[in-house]
Every structure is written in C-alpha cells, then in structure tokens.
Amino acid sequence: MAQGSRQIQSQVQQQVQTLSPQQILVVKLLELPALELEDRIHAELLENPALEEGHEDTASDDLSATSEQENNDSVEYDANDDYLTEDDIPDYKLQDNNGSRKAAVDEIPFSEATSFYELLKDQLNELDLSEHQREVTEYLIGSLDDDGLLRKSLDSISDELAIYAGVEASEEELEEALRIIQDFDPPGLGARNLQECLLNQIKRKEDTPLRKIEMDIIEHCYEEFTRKHWDKIKMKLGLTTEEFEEAIADITKLNPRPGSSMGEFIGRNMQQIIPDFIVETMDDDTIVISLNNRNVPELRMSRDFKAILREQTSNKANLSKEAKDAAMFLKQKLDAAQNFIDAVKQRQNTLMSTMQAIVDLQRPFFLDGDEILIKPMILKDVAERTGLDISTISRVSNSKYVQTNYGIYSLKFFFSDAIITDDGEEMSVREIKKVLQECVENENKKRPLTDEELADILAEKGFPIARRTVAKYRQQLNIPIARLRK
To answer: Under a CB-based contact definition with an 8 Å cutoff, are residues 389 and 383 in contact?
Structure first.
C-alpha cells in the first residue's frame, strides 16, 4: 500500500532573551577598559549637547545664575515629567539605577604600555566591516587566551553571543571573523592549537620552495615533528638532509605563543594603559578598593536644556507644532543624557562589586603578593558572590587591570581552574603548573625528566596528579617532551 506524506504544523514555545537599548549601552560600557571609557565619555559629550561635565551639586553653580534657575536645578529630575502627554513617553524608558560612590584618589600609578587586546582592536578599527562583523570579531578578540590562541569552540562562542549579547552569529560568520583576526599581527594569533598557529605563521611568509617544505612538515608530519623523528619526516616527504635542516631551523624560529610575545604590557612611550582598579593593602591588613576615575569627568544633564524645556512646556496646551517638536527634541536629548549617566554609574557599581568579590576570594594574595597563594577561582565563583550573571563577570574581567602593592595585574590573572585529589583536596592548576615549570627549569639538561618522573616529583611536593595530567599541563606550558629538551 502506497504511503502518503502529510505536513504537521505545531507551535513551539521558546524563551528568547532580548536586551533593551539601555541594557545594551551598559553592556558596551562594561567591556571598555578605563582609557577607552574616557574616550567614550568625551565622544558622548560632543555628540549630546544635553550632557555636560560638572557635579550635580548646585553649590558649584555659577554665582551669576538667577535664584529661580538655581531652584529649578536643585529639583530632582523626573525622566517622565516633561513629556507633553503620556503618549509621548517612549517604550524604552527603564528603571533607575543605583548610584555609586566616587573613588577619591589623588595620585594613581599607571603603566605606559598597551595590551595586545587593545592592539588587536586598533587593527580591527582600521578595517571596513559591517557593524555585525565588527561586533562578532571584537567578541572573538576578547575570547582569546593571553597567549593569543583561541581555545573556546566556535559553537560555544555562538551560544554566548546569542544569550549574553543578543547577537545571532552562525559558525560560518564566526569562521570568517576568526580569519580576520588571523590576518592581524603578529602572525599566529587566533589559532585554535599549536599546529594551526605554526601553519598560519608559515603561510604569511614569502612563497618559496622552503615555505612549501615547512608547510608539508607541519601539515602532514606534525606528530613526527613533535616527537623529533627526523628520519621519518625526510623519508615521508622525500627531502634531502640539507633541505630538511634548513626547514627545521626556520620552523624553530616561529613563535608558539604570539600573544605572550606581546606581553600583558608592551612598549614604552605608547598609548597609556590606566588600571581600572586600585587595590591598596595597608599595614594593618586592611584592603582598600577604589575605581580609577582620575580622568573620568563628573557628568550631569545640561541645566540650560532643563530650564528651556520647563519654560517651553509650562503652557503645553498653547504650544505650536514647531514648539512641540523643539520640546520633544530637548526631551529626547535629556533622556539620552540621563540614560548615559545611569549607565556609567551602573558600570561603576558592577566593577566595584566584581573587584570586591575577587579581593575577598583571593585575600591571601593581596595580603602577601605571593602568586602561589592564588586559589582556584572561576567566573561562577565571582558571579555567585556578587549576584551578577557569569557573562557580566566575563565582560568585567576582560581587558581590565588592577594596580596592587605588588604590581599591575590583568583580572584574568586571578582566575584559574582546580583539580580534586583522591582525598578530596582542591588544588590550583596555576600552582601545579608553576611547580612543574620550576621542576623543568632546574632539571639536568643532559637527562631531562620524563612525565612519569615529573609526576613522582610533584607527588613528593604535595601534588599527587597522574602522568597524563602532567603531560597535559606540560603541553599547555609549551614544554616539549623530555627527549626534545636535551
């Protein structure tokens, strides 16, 4: 019996998170480091005449102002009060945000340097991209590890963009954005593993027979290359000893960690990086946290705009169409000014809350300055302590820096994974890697330690981890196997 086909129509209910214009503004300001925030505020001051520098306190008013204007300015501004009718109030009006305290810091140290994150954004700004491409590519830049490699899957990044930023990006669009980053300098950035990192550096070289050999070695003989099986490579590719040795000598000059070569801070007499936070540890073990707002101006709505608007709307019934349009223009500019002020304050509150949680969780380090004291900590730990979303903590931690008694650190520095030993003890992966690095640095170079021997030494030092875990951490530290360290 022939079987027919039929179409079934069904309804599926999905919950989609969308961000309001005000929330989007807050998110964008959260991502900005201190120096870029200053630029953003100055740009807003130029763009919106209803926004101006100055304290909201009327005590600082010009003495020549009339008493009537001073009284008007001292009244709290109601965001909906001056609309001509309720129908004129736009839908995007949102709730008020809490204020934040201003950190009073007279002398704030800074580093005369710039991060590789900001250098990549500078290169991005030179490209002619659509707003969507720029947004997706910038998000990818923020997802790079400190060594410049991308260890998140594009699938997970696509989900993050949709959930946290309200941006839909297919895997193909992310691939295109990644190719854009991989064209940036230094070569090798944006690779998803060491093999791709080396290949991308070789591809940027001049097209010569030597380049072709290097490509073949890394692309087709990568395992033999990592194991230093030279004869197998020569036989597989049909290379002469001279060709092989020249190619290997050139490959060993490549940089396996292109981001680290730029460093957390690079260059002198370049654009200044100003720490977003100042954390001072006092002699009595009191820890004082403040935001670095040294060059961020106080903002307020224009008093002239408010006075003109009140004057024009004092007799709403008799206003001409031109007067109503002018009043609406003034009102919209004042709303935009208020929303921007609120967003800046919310950014300050969120940053302070995040930094306070980090200090609380990593208090031993801030008291002593010893990196060994850094405890295992992930984004979720800070999110739970602050009540903020994990994506918010991620945005705050990205490209932000803190000045401490012991130097300037990226906020990413304070996050590390942990492992649980058989007896239930939690140990920091960062601490284990540091001890592993020290073991390799102090080994007998004529007889390098095997992974099994390293595991035994780590166990003696109180880090009972398996040999395969040692191999994993060794690879993450870009430490070759024993026979390649001779």
So the answer is: yes
